[in-house]
Amino acid sequence: MLSALFRHTFLMLFGLFLALPLIVVFGVSFNGSAQMIFPPQDTGLRWYRTFFNDPAWNTAFQRSIIVAVFVSVLSTTVAMPVAYAIWRFNSRFARQLAGFGILPFLVPPIVIGIVFLIFGAIIGHVGRIENIIVSHAVTFLAIPLTMITLGFRAVDREVIECAQTLGASDSYVFRTVIIPLISPYVISGMIFAAIFSLNEVVIAFLVGGFVTQTLPVQIFVSLRTGFTPTMCVAAVLFFIIGVLGLLLIARLNNLPRLLGGRG
């Protein structure tokens, strides 16, 4: 009984410790003045109006959303056949290919950014949004690849054998049995990839530079001229998007198990 009380108290205090910075950021975003004051004073939506009326912030936010959507689609499109090959054939080549897909996620972002910066300079394609999309898709390919691999492992092969016994072809089984079973994992991988892409700054800054700025890069650049609560508005928007994404994943799948827990 005492150990359970201690555990719950520790988890509550730890959760509060993690939430305090977010509470401060939320509060500062509603300040009436340009100072970082908490608790907020003269509360209002001044900085939210500033954010959405400022072309630089608004464009950067829209660009980040576009990049995140394309990154999630592109990385999942590449991850799907690799995960399927591992599950279906379990060949050495497929496992090696998956290893190469996971490797960029383990490399420091600055290395990936420099690699794509040099590659873009060589082919004469610099400062484009496509560069950010491709570099993020390569970096975060490991996320949908891992999610979809988990999905294929969760498929009961007896169900497939039953369908094949009844005369279903491989393509029909894949469309009507496998796809519905792994779709929650596919969507989870897409959401995770999009969230990671939204919050990435190092690669986006090196690849896109000052020409094509995503919202994290816009925040980084704005810090050179001083702090404004507009940055907190951007952080609040990212936090809300991340929470909504995790809630959707939890609705579709077993979120604790996807995050490495036992749930």
Could you list some keywords that capture this structure?
mainly alpha, 263 residues, globular, MetI-like fold
**Which series of helices and strands comes N to C?**
HHHHHHHHHHHHH
Gyration radius, rounded? 22 Å
What's the CATH H-level homologous superfamily?
Answer: MetI-like
Instruction: Specify the number of helices.
Output: 13
Structure report:
By secondary structure, the protein is mostly helical. The radius of gyration is 22 Å and the shape is globular. It contains 13 helices and no strands. Helix 3 crosses helix 7.
Write the layout of secondary structure elements.
Elements: H1 2-28, H2 46-53, H3 55-88, H4 92-106, H5 109-122, H6 129-139, H7 142-153, H8 157-165, H9 170-199, H10 202-208, H11 215-222, H12 229-252, H13 255-258
Describe, in short, the structure shown:
By secondary structure, this protein is mainly α. It has helices at 2-28, 46-53, 55-88, 92-106, 109-122, 129-139, 142-153, 157-165, 170-199, 202-208, 215-222, 229-252, 255-258.
